[in-house]
Specification:
- The protein has 141 residues and is of the alpha+beta class.
- Helices cover 35% and strands 16% of the residues.
- It has one domain: Double Stranded RNA Binding Domain (2-Layer Sandwich), CATH 3.30.160.
- A hairpin with a 5-residue loop joins strand 1 and strand 2.
- The relative contact order is 0.15.
């Protein structure tokens, strides 16, 4: 069971892993041991997700979900299979944590009097600075 929060838990039987040969370090093992872990999880038909969380997940990560509705994550950071499996599960947990709570609605605010005053003073200072750059007119009589 992958526990994301108290209310969001994903059973292990919903998640499939495949293993393949990994690139990178590993010495002689790199050519003979399948250490790269690839996680597949069906987001669209998972009974563990509420509909709101599912919609937020699909809206936030559309490129991570394939045409069949499966999320595909892989890890080959470590030299052993179990740590790569744990890394995939942690990646999935972080993705779900990001969409578990709905985003807070923005409250409309208006600028304060002091901020308006500062903005106008800054505009006035810029205007005066640019006026000083103009050539000086001389009245010769």
């Amino acid at each position: 069971m992958l526990v994301v929060t108290d209310t969001l838990k994903i059973p292990k039987d919903e998640i499939q892993f495949t293993f393949s040969k990994s690139a990178g370090p590993g010495g002689q093992n790199v050519n003979k041991v399948n250490t790269k872990a690839t996680l597949r999880w069906d987001v669209r038909s998972s009974p563990s997700l509420s509909e709101e969380v599912r919609q937020r997940f699909l809206a936030k990560y559309p490129r991570r979900v394939n045409k069949e509705g499966q999320l595909v994550l892989s890890s080959q950071r470590f030299r052993d299979q179990q740590r790569n499996v744990a890394d995939c599960l942690e990646k999935l947990r972080q993705l779900l944590l990001a969409v578990e709570k709905p985003p807070r609605r923005r409250r409309k605010t208006s600028p304060t009097k002091a901020s308006r005053r500062r903005r106008l003073a800054e505009k006035q200072a810029n205007s005066e600075k640019k006026q000083r750059r103009q050539p000086v007119e001389r009245n010769e009589t």
